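Subject: Sanity check before I submit

Could someone independently write out the structure tokens for this chain? I want to compare against mine line by line before I put it in a report. The sequence has 191 residues.
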Amino acid sequence: ILRGAHYALGSNFMAWLLLFADDGKIIMPLKHFRQMVPILFAYFAIFGLSVKWPKVRGGVQFQWIGYWTDLEKYRVGISEKRRAWVVFWIQQLLDGKPTEADFDSGLGRLCFVCNAIVWDRPFLAPLYALAAAVRRKSGGKVDCTKLPPYIKVVLLHLKERLLARRTIHCERGRPRVGKSIERFRSDAKAE
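---
Independent answer below. Compare away.
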């Protein structure tokens, strides 16, 4: 249906149309907003797609499926609610208290966070290694009240990073004044 919406808009009104479960996201040039929105919502009505009007918002800063986007400052990250949940979960682990989510579930949410804040993704490796080792050894799950010290150090670092910032600057995209844009990348072992 979204591919058809792209065709309905035509080449004069190009937009990013994204759908995840029942949450949609439309990014379009502001100059075409008044023409594109009626076309899209009429198209959605023709195909019987329901629109929850309280969820419809506009602007250059918005939250979508837990991710935060700031088109004006070229920043992406996580929503404040998502950050608060992850920081609270990490703090409970550091305090040795039982958590509402088991280690694997919390690690999945932490991975979701690190999909947006990519610089913290390498720090997930020891956490995944612990979960895999416990699963292989006992077939069970990690006991959140008895974490090894090295895991606590990693969690403390991640918590501090999340408290310091919840968005990062997009390095790719339009070149900024005095900067160039990356057009090609190669590694040292390119064969």
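---
OP: Matches mine. For the report I'm noting this point. The chain has a mean pLDDT of 84.
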